[in-house]
Every structure is written in C-alpha cells, then in structure tokens.
Queue: 3 jobs
Job 1
Amino acid sequence: MEHRKLGTSDLELPVITFGAWGIGGLFWGGSDDDEGIRAIQAAIDHGVDAIDTAPMYGCGHSESLVGKAIKGRRDRVRILTKCGLRWDSTEGEFYFTIKAPDGRDVCVYKNTKAASIRHECEQSLTRLGVETIDLYQVHWPSASAPAEETMGALVRLKEEGKIRHIGMCNYRAADLAEALRFGPVVSDQIKYNLLEREIESDPLPFCRRENLGVLCYSPMALGLLTGKVTMDRTFPETDIRGRMPWYQPTNRRRVLDALEKIRPIADAHGATLAQVAVAWVLTRQGVTTALVGARNARQAVENAAAAGLRLSEQELAVIGWTFEAIGKPAC
C-alpha cells in the first residue's frame, strides 16, 4: 500500500483510508456492528492502516466500534477523528435534525468552543481506547467560537500529547488561512469525486500552495459511482441518500449512463467501477488519501485494491470528460 506524507507533518497515511461513517449507522439507515468490525480488521490486514471516524458518526457508535476493532492492533493503525458537532448538548449553532434508525430525532449543533473541544477529545479517547489521536480535525467551520479560541484549545491538546496533529474538515481557503494564523494546521478533509469537483477551485489550490494535506471523502459519491445503485433501489427515511440530488431518478439515470461509458476502462484493468472512481481521485495533484467506507470485509478488501490500479493519462482524461459532460444535478 502506497503511503503519502500528510502536509508538513511527519504523519504518513495510506492512499486508501478506511472511512468509518457508514458503520456508525446514523445517516445510513442502520448498520451491522459485527460486519463493521470485520470490515475494519480486513482493511488493516490489506494495508489500509488508517481509520477516519467522528463522534457524530452514530453519536459515538462509530468510534466505539473502531475501538473494538483495533484492540490489540493500535500499533498498526493511525487514528483520525473529529470534534465540533454535538448531539448531546444544545450549546452553539443549531445545524440540523436527523432521524435515527431507532426513530428518534437527533438534533445536531456546531460547537467549537474550547471547553466543548476538550470534552469531546476526552470522550473520543475513551471510546477509541487510545491515549493519543493521530489527527484531530474540526468537523465543520463554525461561528460558535473565534478561530483563536478553537485553535488555542487544539494546540493545548497537542502540547499535552492527547493529539498529534491538527486538521480541518470542510474548510474553504479563507477559513483555513484564518486557522493557520493561530496554529499548525496540517490538512483539510473535504468532499471530492467525479460528480462533485468544487474543491478544484477552492480549497484545493490553497492546500497545494500551503502544503496542506488533502483527505477526500465520498470518492464514490456515497456509493453511487459503484454502479450498484440501480434505478429500482429505494432508501428508508433514515438513509440520507434518498434525499440527495444525484440519487433522484432523473439524475441517477444520467450517472448510470456515464458509468456505462467508462465500464470498458474498468474491464480492461479487471477492476470495478468503484475502484476506477477512487483511483481517479488519487491521481489529482495535492490529494493525500481517499476515505473509502465499507460495510463488510468484502467491500474493504475491494477498496484496498483500488490503491494498486494504474490508469493511463488517456483513460483519466476520458473518465474526467465523461462526467464533466453530464453537468450538475437537475433539481
């Protein structure tokens, strides 16, 4: 498994990082805990020795599952988690309400105040069963606290050895520049895939200039770019994909048609469409790693294999043009 240095830090990440959003269940209509643990362990066994999770993924559940999966394997894996989204407190900015798999409403607040960050860090360390978090990231930009306060709290946690490095998620260039004024930010985690390429204008150029690592989430567009989400697929109310623009029937049809156009490229390499989508992201200048989720061991092994897929410049161009041609999702 190829590894790349994360920005200016000494942390090296595999080009495929296990994304633990789905195994938390919330947003995804539930999950199978045993399958999730086996997926993490299979990923580690196949060279995916970094796991990205967050307290918000299942209201602590994803972190707890990661902790169980890495027990006895901590020395083999890098742990990445986050702070700044609270479901257990109403302090801060109200963000959204989501229906949990058990039917209850989960109200989420953005909170990047110093006391909240410290509380979240301690909770994450306990759930994960670790003494240090390798990369601690602010989950979303927030007006609940000034950058100086947020970064001050993170720098103190770093000085205490509770976290090794500081990262941001979903930050644009202006927000990153402000955070960098107050501390050593080493990375930004942001959505990037063949359908959603907004980061190419902001913040990817900034990250390149400032030598910040870039962690790309949703490289398969929540599974849509696997080609397995066919027109007859439906989603329960507790699965957010049913409300996403690209998942609506008219838009989904356009994506499936585009995937068929690049299927010969996948077939020529003995690869899946999902692997092609991930491999394309990994060729983009400035990208450090792709966060790829798996709900079972088979998916985890398939995801790991995407790291070895080598697409030619011509193939990459065809893939890029094919998806540029379908434009934006219709409302």
Note: The radius of gyration is 19 Å.
Job 2
Amino acid sequence: NQLDPSWSAEEKEAQIREGLVGSIFNIVDPDEVNRLQRMAVEETRLGIPLLVGRDVIHGFRTIYPIPLGQAATFDVALVEEAARLTADEAVQTGVRWTFSPMVDVARDPRWGRVAEGYGEDTYLTSVMGAAAVRGYQGNDSIVRLAACVKHFACNSQEMNRQTLDSVLDERTLREIYLRPFEIAIKEGKPQCIMSAYNLINGVYANENPHVLVDILRNEWGFKGVVVTDWGGNNDRVEA
C-alpha cells in the first residue's frame, strides 16, 4: 500500500507504525522523508524502509520538454541523458521510484494524456521509453531511481477511465500497444510496470491473466513489481 500525502500526520504515522504502508508518495522534503524512514525502520516490527515515489515525468528541479516534445527531437541519447540528470536530482530528496516513462502509443488526440508519451509511432515510443528507463536507473548494479513503465496496457484508448473496453485482435495488441513495453523491459530492465485502468477484451487490465501472466511474466520474463494506477483496485471494486 502507498501512503496518500493528504492524510493527517497522525494517520500517516499510525499507518507506518502498524506496518500497513510500504511506500509514501509525493513527499519531497528530505527532513520529512528521513523522519518517516526512521519511524519505519526503528519503530515497526519488521524495520523495513519505505519506498518513496513521485511522478517525476520530465525533470525534477530542472524541467525538460514534455515527453512528446522529447520524442520530436528523435535524439535517443539526449532523452536518456535528461532522464539521468532527473534521477540525480530526485534521489537527493529521498525519491527513489518514478512513475515514468509512459509508453502508451497515442493515436487518438481526444485522449487527455497524449503529452505524457512519445506519440503515435510504436518504434519511436519503444526506443524513447527504453532510453528513459536506462537514464533513470543507470547502467550499474545499483538502481538510482526505479522506473515504472506505464500503462499496461492499451490505456491510450481510454476515454472514460475504467469503463472503457479496449477491444482489439491479438496482432494489434502485440505489434502496436505491447511492443514498447517489451522493448523497455528487454533493453532497459525497469523495476516496475504499472497496470492500466481500462479493460482489455472484456477483462480489467489490473487482473488480466493474458497480459499480466502469459505475456509479461511467462513470455517476457519480467520479475519486477506490478503496481496499479492510482486507486485502480478501488475503481474495480466500485465498478
């Protein structure tokens, strides 16, 4: 479970001390991060540190062009370097997990998140996404900033959140919408994949065995974390 920063200080501390929280979100004050980390390590039964996450999308202190603008450069090395510098800034505040890059192939301009991805071309999205993962995480054995590739999958067809059903054949699914995830995983080796709000051929992406198990785990061999989008499981229960 990830802690909502809007909770009161008493609620946050109680959740952490009871061991109900594994991650905190959008807290970028190093003093506050350290205070909560000490609480997690020294005042809980298991003493497991918190994982600090944030939507670090196109820069942290230094702001770079939006991902769509980055894709317009067609400069893969430049995108990787921007992600590397972003990671260097973010980790100084205690943030070690970013919900980026977004590799949804966006072919409908009505979708509200086109700016967060790399456009309509599957190949360009693939190479840019993999570059961002390499930049965030680094090429050594120690991950600087854990990347979370999103939204798995077919989220770019989403016009009305969890009620949308992306109905498409297997070839379209794999060659257009899943290919950037596959390339990002094989070339960038991200620590995390974020599942999408929508349905895929009638089954919610958050619990879709075909994409989450058959393809992601068994075919591609992904061994990292799968996290839902904000409140994704809650939406599923309410729907």
Note: Strands lie at 2-3, 23-25, 51-54, 97-98, 146-152, 165-166, 192-195, 199-200, 203-204, 225-228.
Job 3
Amino acid sequence: GGTPVESWSTLESLASCGATHYCDEERPQGCPSRLYNAMIHPFTVGPMALSGFTWYQGESQLGVGGAAQSYACTFPRMITEWRKLFKNPDAFFGFVQLACWCGGGASGDAEAEMRSLGQMPAALLHKVGYATNADHCDGCNIHPPAKQFVSNRLADSALALQYGKDVPWRSPT
C-alpha cells in the first residue's frame, strides 16, 4: 500500500512519459522501478502462462501537482510494458477506480480528477476493464472494506473482455 505507479513501472516506460523521479529515503518503496524489479520482473523470465492482471492503486498519486495528467501517461504505459515483457499483448488488465476519500481535499476534486483524467485513459487500451468503487464508499476510508462489489465487477469485465462471455461488465460512470 501507499506506493506510486512509478515504483511498479520500468524505467523505460517512465522515460517514454517524460517522468523524472528520485528515490526518497523516507519512502524507499516509491523509488522508480523498485517494486517492479523486486516483484514483477522475476516472473517475466518464464515460462509462465497468465491471462491477466488486476490493479488497485492510485491514491498515493494524489496531492502531487499534475498527478492525473502524469498518471494518464504512466499508467497505460505500464500496462503496455507489462504485456510486452510477459510476451502476452492480449493479457487482460483490470483496475479499480479510486474510492471516495477525504484526504485529497474536502471537495473530492482530486479523487474525481484522478478517476476520470488519470485512470480512465487506460480503459482505451485493448482488453482493459475497470470497476468503480465510488458508489460503495465507507466515509473517508480510501480502502473501503466491502471489496466484493469491485471484485465482482472486475470478474465480469475479465469474463467479457478476456473470455468472450456475454455478460454486462461496465461499471456505473
């Protein structure tokens, strides 16, 4: 928890977005590519069969100036790079939109901006599904405990996009 997308991305994907980041000794998990190198890359050497990924992240980007605009590049680029490295360009990718939260400002503008401007550009990629979490908020908890709603929505999007099942999957928007 609390990690930025940059820590899960390759340096190449970040560079393609013009992202420049540094390591913060106070929060080393935020160093560019640190978690990618430790937790993703070891599985790319295969052989490994996979049909997709799920992603629940984005809140740690809030409060950073221009976060949504930067995320609109770095997030889809990370997806594309992971698919390339796993040699599976058709791998499903499902993500959960940010829930309601009070920490990004009283108006909630930061969360709404991240959902619409930061996260949703990834949905334009092939076989990318999403699940909204904004309609099942738990007050000011960025991680609402009722995960069954988003898990069912992500499962439906995977069934439709990856496995060709005729099920409705688009979350309320």
Note: The mean pLDDT is 87.
